[in-house]
Amino acid sequence: APDTGLHLVIVGRWPNTTGHLPGNIILLDRELIDVHDTPDVLAGHAIAEFARAQQVSALSDLMRDVGTFHALRFLATGQISDTALQRHTDQMISRPRTNISSAALVAAFETARIPARPYANNSEESDQVKERLLSRDPYVAGIAPTILSDNDWVTLQSICEST
User: Average model confidence (pLDDT) for the chain?
Assistant: First the structure.
């Protein structure tokens, strides 16, 4: 797979399951690791959020949320205050999530070569989007690629449990 420069960050108690920040940072709720037996659902949520990030600029959201003064300060100095970041976080949590078109979501799963079924069965997408994902999942009848070995998945779960 091509290097996208994507960074996955596991966050405890993230109310929206996923989110994204400037710099290709995808936030994933720790519950996606704690609750599921395989990494397929976690990978699906990461892919869906990456597709969402392609439609919504995290930097534009940040600049809008922090206000003119903090946005100008950030652009001039590269620094942003903790207060401004907290305001942005509060807005991210309360803002309605951007819907992803089913075509963009299907394309994201096809590009990543990850099975869509686990995500479709464990997401809050509309029934129409879920149906499209399920009908276009190339791995329904075949063997899906391994996302993480069982040992690596258990190791990741153990790391998350210890933090």
Answer: 90
